[in-house]
Amino acid sequence: MKTKRWTIMTLSICLVLMLAFAPAYAQPVAPKTIKIGAVYDITGPIAATGERFAWGAKKLLEGINKDGGLYVKEFDKKIPLQLVDADHSASVDKAALQAEYVNQQDVVAIIATTAFLPAGGAVAQKYSLPCFMTLSNNKKPYEVGNKYLFSNWPKTDDNARTFFAFLNSFPKEQRPTTVALFEGMHDIGVEFAKFGEREAVANGYKFARVKFEWFTKDLSTAILEAKRANAEAVFGIMHTPVAMLLVKQMKELDFNPKAVFLDMGPTNPMAWATLGKDGDYMCCNVEFSKGVKWPGAKEFIAMHRAERPKDGDYFEHAAAGYAAAQVISDAIKRAGSLDREKVRNAIAATDMTTIIGPTKFRGDGTMELQYTTIVQYQDKAQTIIFPEKRREKAPVYPMPKWKER
């Protein structure tokens, strides 16, 4: 009996001592850094785009790290952020390989650009790895049920909806009757024309789908086809050299539509300036220009001009990287954890305003927005003309005819 009593007393004393000297709870060990994958064009045909994107993303992380890092509730401390860079070089095959690589580096999420989808997105889905896309407007990858895929960049259907809303903003008698849908023979070009056709039909416009080779050096056949269709507006997506070729050959062939919207090609104001006054009045989607008024935009522009004077007013790619990093860092903080599923759920619940604007996500992961931002070149400068509530100047519509300029 005494032995039993002594045993109980001994165990009790040991338990008291253990409780006295043990921490209140087992604090998980914090990593040295929070790793975020960044898969973009480091080399390849659009490496300049990747460099600008990465600069923007890294500037956001630098700002957070100067304050000690990002607070994560799970560890009850601030932890520095780290980008793990990988190069997809605008190659589908490399995108999948680089997604595998960054996954092995224990990243909590991926930020990716341009040609990362669809291959890279499939890899991210396989590992339940949140994937945040920017500078990519393909819609199709978001139609396959990948719950780990998100984007803060307008998609092809958003641009089509916006352009026809822009046309509808004019009195009916001033609107074009037929729209030429310039359809580049590439997945994004075909998708752009598909949604253009859908919006044309829904809004009561006639249309002509005018095909051209993606890297063509002659658009005369397509332009003449648009003229024969009596097209009074142009809607399409083209690389910058092809978009510049369109302007030159439109002038040569005296094709005078009332409005021209070209995604991607005219977004670089430095390249577009080489067209001189011929580049005026063309419209495109630019989500970040000197005319934006979102919180932090003014400070970003000042920083960009100070550190990248050679880029002039070409802010968009860098702003996209900065805004993407804003969303990811905000999601990690709200998740209070580095658990991928919790971070994914936090991204899905995002409701914030970045430097490129209000950011929420639809159920398919695309950004929730009514309209994209249309800029028109006026006096060789990108000028916001739509939506009307954000307009810097009234649009020049119809475009002056070539012989009247």
Task: Give the structure's gist in a few sentences.
This protein has 405 residues and is α/β, with parallel strands linked by helices.
Description:
This protein is an alpha/beta fold and 405 residues long. The chain folds into two domains: 34-154 and 292-359, Response regulator (Rossmann fold, 3-Layer(aba) Sandwich), CATH 3.40.50; 157-286 and 372-404, 3-Layer(aba) Sandwich (Rossmann fold). It has helices spanning 2-21, 47-66, 92-104, 119-126, 156-168, 187-202, 220-228, 240-252, 269-272, 297-307, 316-335, 340-348; strands at 34-40, 70-72, 77-79, 81-87, 109-113, 131-134, 149-151, 178-184, 206-212, 233-238, 259-264, 283-285, 352-354, 357-359, 374-378, 381-386. A five-stranded parallel sheet has the order 4-1-5-6-7, sandwiched between helices. α11 packs across α12 (340-348). The protein is elongated. The model is unreliable at 13-24 (pLDDT under 50).
List the helices and strands and how they pair.
Elements: H1 2-21, E1 34-40, H2 47-66, E2 70-72, E3 77-79, E4 81-87, H3 92-104, E5 109-113, H4 119-126, E6 131-134, E7 149-151, H5 156-168, E8 178-184, H6 187-202, E9 206-212, H7 220-228, E10 233-238, H8 240-252, E11 259-264, H9 269-272, E12 283-285, H10 297-307, H11 316-335, H12 340-348, E13 352-354, E14 357-359, E15 374-378, E16 381-386
Parallel strand pairs: 1-4, 1-5, 5-6, 6-7, 8-9, 8-10, 10-11
Antiparallel strand pairs: 2-3, 12-15, 13-14, 15-16
CATH fourth-tier homologous superfamily of the largest domain: Response regulator
Order of helices and strands: HEHEEEHEHEEHEHEHEHEHEHHHEEEE
Low-confidence parts: 13-24
Q: Indicate the overall shape.
A: elongated
Helical stretch count? Answer: 12
